[in-house]
Amino acid sequence: MKVIVAENKIQGGAKAFELFEKEIKNGAKVLGLATGSTPETLYQNWVNSDLNCSNLTSINLDEYVGLTPDNPQSYHYFMQKHLFDKKPFKKTYIPDGTTKDPSVTCKEYDEIIKKNPIDLQLLGIGRNGHIAFNEPGTPFNIGTHEVKLTENTIKANSRFFDNIDDVPKSAICMGTANIMASKKIVLMAFGEKKAEAIKKTIEGPITEEVPASILQKHPDVTIICDKAAAQELD
Ligand code: F6R
């Protein structure tokens, strides 16, 4: 694993954009993308650049079940707002949160990934080491699947909704096997709250209790973190 320690999330975002731009200029055509607060500085650099994305395909990690693309809490909405509105791609894939049959949608998503092998996958990381919605204990060998959200996550998310009953109860997300099949992976992490997860990911044992620890087995991973997220590394 290559580890790049930036001063802060602004520099980290600029570094991550440099890396994406270089890979795209070198021929990367299919990008795996993530949502959340971590990639925001990367996307800011991206939309302010002159990089042409009309040849690119993107495949996002996850989406809530039950949210329509125009719902401001949906990951569709997030991607439009932070990247696609300003940088149109040739084709963008995000799991269909409005599906009546998540298991069919998951199989279709696996097919999409098989037909469009991911050249460069972007990841954030949760405080507990989760990647996408693959929480501790999720088997390493699974593909796209539906994840039931825990009571804690539902409660935490309820601040974004008028009513707790409107909070999604599940999400569709790429599995660790899909992520590991990507040719290159960039994981970003900012802030001291991510320090323990970053230490376990890089220096800890490979265990399903720390989903990101599987990345130690991938041949081409770059971790971009700020000083705060790197503070526990040896
Ligand atoms: C987002 C995703 C999540 C986040 C992670 C970190 O598509 O799959 O795994 O990357 O929860 O979230 P932030 O960046 O908000 O700290």
UniProtKB/TrEMBL annotation:
PROSITE patterns per UniProt: GLC_GALNAC_ISOMERASE (PS01161)
Catalytic residues identified in the record: D62, N128, H130, E135
Keyword Membrane found: no
Listed GO CC annotations: cytoplasm
Keywords: Carbohydrate metabolism, Hydrolase, Isomerase
Molecular functions per Gene Ontology: glucosamine-6-phosphate deaminase activity; identical protein binding; isomerase activity
Pathway this chain belongs to: Amino-sugar metabolism; N-acetylneuraminate degradation; D-fructose 6-phosphate from N-acetylneuraminate: step 5/5
Reaction(s) this enzyme catalyzes, per UniProt: alpha-D-glucosamine 6-phosphate + H2O = beta-D-fructose 6-phosphate + NH4(+)
Gene3D superfamilies, per the entry: 3.40.50.1360
Enzyme Commission number(s) of this protein: 3.5.99.6
Occurrences of domain Glucosamine/galactosamine-6-phosphate isomerase (ranges): 25-218
Gene Ontology biological process: carbohydrate metabolic process; glucosamine catabolic process; N-acetylglucosamine catabolic process; N-acetylneuraminate catabolic process
Enzyme class: hydrolase
Function: Catalyzes the reversible isomerization-deamination of glucosamine 6-phosphate (GlcN6P) to form fructose 6-phosphate (Fru6P) and ammonium ion.
Family stated for the protein in its record: Belongs to the glucosamine/galactosamine-6-phosphate isomerase family. NagB subfamily.
Name this polypeptide is given: Glucosamine-6-phosphate deaminase
